[in-house]
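Usage example:
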Amino acid sequence: MINITEANKKVVEAFMEARPVVVGTAKAIEVIPGMHKDLYLHAGPPISWERMAGPMKGAMIGALIFEGRAKTAEEANKLLESGQIKFAPCHEHASVGPMAGVISPSMAVFIVENKTHGNKAYSGMNEGRGKVLRMGAYSPEVIDRMKWLNDVYAPTMDAALKSAGGVDIRSLLGKALHMGDDGHNRLDAASLLFTTSLAPHIAKVAKNAATASDVVRFMGENALTILNPVMAACKTMTDAGANIEGSTIVTVMARNGTDFGIRVSGLGDRWFTGPAGQVKALYFPGFTVKDANPDIGDSTITETAGIGGFAMATAPAIVTFISGTAKDAVQTTMDMYEITYAEHKYFTIPFLEFRGTPTGVDIRKVVEKSMLPRVNTGVAHKDPGVGQVGAGVVTPPMNIFEDALVAFAEKYGI
Amino acid sequence: MAVIKAQIRTGVYYDSAVLMQLQRSLANLPGVGDAGVIMGTDTNKELLERIDLVSPEVTASRENDLVIVVRADNEKTADEAIAKVDELLTAKKATAETNVRPKTIEAANEILPESSWVLISVAGRYAARVARQALAVGKHVFLFSDNVSVEDEISLKAEAAEKGLLVMGPDCGTAIVSGIGLGFANKVRKGPIGMVAAAGTGLQQVSSRIHQLGSGLTYGIGTGGRDLSEKIGGVTFLMALDVLTRDPETKVIVLVSKPPAPKVAEDVLRVARKAGKPVVVNFIGRTPISRQVGNLYFASGLDDAAAIAVELAKNPPAPYVAPELDLKRFAKGQKYLRGLFSGGTLAYEAQHLLTEYLPKVYANAPINKDNKLKDALVSVEHTIVDLGEDEFTVGRLHPMMDNELRIRRLLDEAKDPEVAVIMLDVVVGFGSHEDPASELAPAIAKAKDVAKKAGRYLEVAAVVTGTEDDPQKLSAQIEPLKKAGAWVSTSNEEVVRYVGSILQGLNAVATVEKPAATPIDLAILKKPLEAINIGLESFYDNLKVQGTPAIQLDWRPSAGGNEKLIGILERMKKYE
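Running the assembly step on the lines above writes:
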């Protein structure tokens, strides 16, 4: 007979004891398990080309142009419709991607290694805010930036990371949470910490001073520089707790812009999906809710690991995204304690007397209390090629937790 | 013709989210078509270009500049919008409700860890589950909700008893704890009287009367109307009685109930007798036989109960000392009474008084026909025989004149291994036997000897009715009886109560006792009241008005009330 308590304890222990370190960069095809030249990874649960949301389609088009497999959007479209290009969720290949989350074979990815359990995870280079591939934009300047990231930025990062002996993401995040970051939507402090820890090494290993300057400037200007390594780090944490028999803890929450999907530790690799929600957001000038694509991206891996929306109480500045008060931020974290299994050992909240962040979403509690996980997220334009239009908060659909609970009862004969 | 107006502020920093919010507020102003409030980075300026929200100032701005730009119907509106920026930036949000409203008892407990009470008034079908959660975190429960099944009540109270917690209810309307009223309650001053009530308005009526009469309450503990039914067995009532017994501030206890199950009423009274302080009893529909028995005071009604309690609290009686019963003298299996009477009225009174001690007493002349002996010559369990009845006096003298039949019956009864006590009446005076003791005393000695030889102890108790001036002389009758080993009194009631107590004691030892509840921790009960309220918001407001720290739960039914999911969640608990 299973023991849910013991199983869950084991899972959250693995989440917390995982010590992810970003150790270098490489081309996706060289490191991501199962990657091949026709495989294009995307965010969220599995999806067909037909059902893909606009931003994901745009990112796929951009990725084919970037790979040199198409010169125009039309050409790319033809190829994507042909069935020659295979799609798979990042999550099924030890990877994660923000927003559309597209990873193509020759894209550079960060390598994050969990020093405790030995597992690894991968995520691309972050392009900054605005008109970017991950939001579905694929104009020439977007592709040019991707090429620079791949050819100049990533190799420099790789050399700098090796020179630095890696950067410990868990300790860096712990510090950033005390500096007003939530670890998902607000990574200003974490990105600066990342930049300052690598800058000396970049200066040392860069091809020349101009490259060093470009790379450090790019890192410093992009408040989301560290988002992808953080996501991959969270992925190594939750993967360490995946596939534990009898556990009701969620190990993946991810969206593809059409569906929101979760996986549960005790239910293996099975996805439970429902419609992706509309983000309650603030929009960039000129955009409204009518432009917004439904919820998209793997970045919910941060909430899955116990930060992001769950750590709102430590990042009160971001409540303005929902026109809230600082007290709402505290309330959000307090609410998340109600549906999680543990309080994090290493991620703490000074304002709550250094209480650990709510960690390990328990499907039992979500269903019992009808309380959904809170996610902080960016919003992509619904059409391919436009990019980010805002940011806000969203929750998953209730049915996926209910379906998972029913499946759990069936699997274990409860 | 729409105009675009911009303002650039250098050297200020605002968080982008604040700016996005500001931008939305500006765009919502009447007459404003669009607005942008950004830091002047290239990316941001591109965004503005995309929607043609640019002016030369915007283009010239730098990344450390705050750019405010609006498109409005006319210049005036645009200027007014920009003028609003500072106001909007400094505007404070109205702070909403300052009290946090947690969604679960566990979370509420984190906030108010000193709370020892949970008030529950959610819909009945959810109430038991919520009550279980409260017990799980070690709280006393005030369960106002009704429509809770008997099965749930039994299991809740069993769990509570194991943990030394009270479950007041279900359907408990009122309670008073440390001077604070829960649910429907009156403002009653603190005082020396403790109440337990299986009757909500009964508690309100009596406590109010006590207040009106100038006294007050330590506790008024409601139990729910079903508590004294046979199925529930008075779990809460007995626990409450026990804690009031131990509470040094409670000088007098008042027990009030709607008609209780007779068996449970017996259990309660048995415990009440040992309280060591006066206990006023008003079980509605149970006519008191006597005003006072030992430390128990039987009130004729609610008002009477209040009056007696107040009087007892004001003028405490001398502590009641129960007569020495020495039950250890009796052998195992001795448990019945046999009363052999010559006087019909004395036999009647004995039966009547014994209803306070024994569930059923058979008789040849019974006080109710269910207790009629089939055969006056054959005793059954507890039996009282009036040997002055016609069936015995046909062709024979009345037993007041002729002792022979009674002596024979006395010796027969003494041989019965289940008999513990034999009661006799000896009525002297003109017309009676000239010296009954001369015949009865040897018979009593012989009867006791029969029992002794069989390894038993037989108690013989006798009431002697008469005066010193009677021909037989009262004291001359009493003396030989006492010498023969009888327990003698001149009061029929005193003898009946004495034998009643013995038999009650023997039969209580014989019945299997329920496993005792874990005693309620008096120290926790004595703490100033702090409470978690789930359900009716007015109960929360009432607590606040009374100055009690309290938390109102933002409660929702488990799994949105979906029975299938609730079932799974319940079954999963077995795997925890």
